[in-house]
Write a structure and sequence with these properties.
The protein is of the alpha/beta class. The protein folds into two domains: 14-258, Dihydropteroate synthase-like (TIM Barrel, Alpha-Beta Barrel); 268-389, Sulfite Reductase Hemoprotein, domain 1 (2-Layer Sandwich). The protein has helices at residues 41-54, 66-78, 91-99, 115-128, 143-148, 155-171, 186-199, 216-230, 245-258, 282-293, 311-314, 346-360, 362-367, 371-389, 396-406; strands at 14-17, 20-23, 29-33, 58-62, 83-87, 104-107, 132-137, 177-182, 205-206, 236-238, 268-271, 301-305, 320-325, 328-333, 336-342. The strands form three sheets. The chain has an eight-stranded parallel sheet. It has a five-stranded mixed sheet with strand order 11-12-13-14-15, with helices on both faces. The protein has a two-stranded antiparallel ribbon with strand order 1-2. Helix 4 links the parallel strand 6 and strand 7. The structure holds iron/sulfur cluster.
Length: 407
């Protein structure tokens, strides 16, 4: 049976952000935003390249002043990914960003409220074939809507804000649109996106705004976006973290990979949580393994397991795994023991074998290994550990007896 983590994807129309399709049957994309001054062309481009390498398909840059628009004009032709210009208060900056060649605009309806200005921007976008993201933000909702909904930000108010903007666009025949209804409250944004998904067929850009620094920010953003993605809602995503934006791009890519919504490009590192049986500091070994693999294009599942008693069995489906036992690392590939190395070589052994698998394939690496010798060594260490610790490392039987005697 095919196991997927998401409901069927919501049907939407498709738009093009530069060469990247968003919505329809296009793969879900990852976005991030630069934190440099856009006028700093070289610094911004450097960050855009770093974001693209970490998994961003589309990058947004602020266009808040004329120097930023001038910077955009130089950045856009040299960028490896499409550029979205972020416009907040001045509609003229939207026109300047279009002149600079921006592939998409992001307009916040709470900030540009003059209908004539909105329509002027939409008309220009229509003529140039450039899409707009309507970026509703719970924190900067139009004050009239805020009052209408009882002095609070509600999902209904956020959806209405998007619809008002859409109505202006319709007046000039513009519908090249994607929409976001972000809030820093996870339940609020989930409900707003659900309502929006029912109301329109435009592609949706997901995000929990101002999620904050990791790890709490990562958890909030993941809770909101993963819930919606699992319901089939969402066509492009952005983590808004108070962190190096490369972390945002990486998190976006990892979320889609974890949900099976994007082909894996980098290592999927799994590791046991450690317990009383652990023969090694699992946290340290897993951390060093993460650092060693980094963003390298090695799409294998790699397991770090604390003991040879249970590790190889629990991680038998991993492409490669290593389990500690009596100062040794027992390496296994798809559940078959292939090598035994000193404990302090566990990480480098994982990397070496991963590289060999990428080059020669799993079957060739297993065929070249002394599987019998490795299996025998693992069996011996396993038996020795079971002999000293018993099948129950925590010696629960004796402890239960003791507890009974005391009560
Ligand atoms: S693999 Fe071993 S050390 Fe890790 S959680 Fe399982 S029993 Fe404990």
């Amino acid at each position: 049976m095919d196991v997927t983590s998401a409901a069927p994807r919501r049907r939407t129309r498709q738009i093009m952000v530069g060469k990247v399709p968003v919505g329809g049957d296009a793969p879900i994309t990852v976005q991030s935003m630069t934190i440099t001054k856009t006028a700093d062309v070289e610094g911004t481009l450097q960050q855009i390249y770093a974001l693209a390498a970490a998994g961003a398909d589309i990058v947004r840059c602020t266009c808040n002043e004329i120097e930023a628009a001038e910077g955009l004009a130089q950045i856009v032709p040299r960028s490896p990914v499409p550029i979205v210009a972020d416009i907040h208060h001045q509609y003229k900056m939207a026109l300047a960003a279009l002149e600079a060649g921006g592939h998409c605009l992001r307009l916040n309806p709470g900030n540009i409220r003059n209908p004539e200005h909105i329509k002027a921007v939409a008309s220009e976008c229509k003529d140039r074939g450039v899409p707009i993201r309507i970026g509703v933000n719970g924190g900067s909702l139009d004050s009239k809507l805020y009052e209408k909904y009882g002095g609070k930000v509600t999902p209904e108010a956020m959806v209405e804000s998007a619809r008002i903007e859409l109505a202006y666009f319709e007046e000039v025949g513009f519908d090249d649109v994607k929409i976001s209804v972000k809030a820093s409250s996870v339940p609020l944004m989930i409900e707003a996106y659900r309502q929006l998904a029912d109301a329109v067929d435009y592609p949706l850009h997901l995000g929990v705004t101002e999620a904050g620094p990791p790890p709490a920010g990562l958890i909030k953003a993941t809770a909101g976006m993963a819930t919606l993605l699992a319901e089939g809602i969402g066509d492009t995503i952005r983590y808004s973290l108070t962190a190096d934006p490369v972390e945002e791009a990486r998190a976006g890519r990892q979320l889609l990979e974890a949900l099976g919504l994007r082909e894996r490009k980098t290592v999927d590192l799994i590791a046991c949580p450690s317990c009383g049986r652990a023969e090694v500091d699992v946290i340290d070994v897993a951390k060093r393994a993460m650092e060693a693999f980094g963003d390298r294009e090695i799409p294998l599942q790699i397991a770090v397991m604390g003991c040879v008693v249970n590790g190889p069995g629990e991680a038998r489906d991993a492409d490669i795994g290593i389990a500690a036992g009596r100062k040794k690392g027992h390496l296994f590939i798809k559940g078959r023991n292939v090598a035994v190395v000193p404990e302090d070589e566990m990480v480098e052994t994982l990397v070496r074998y991963a590289e060999r698998i990428m080059e020669d394939g799993i079957d060739a690496v297993v065929a070249a290994a002394d599987t019998k010798g490795a299996q025998k060594a693992a069996d011996e260490d396993r038996a020795a550990l079971l002999g000293s610790q018993g099948a129950d490392a925590n010696d629960a039987g004796t402890r239960i007896d003791l507890i009974r005697k005391k009560t």
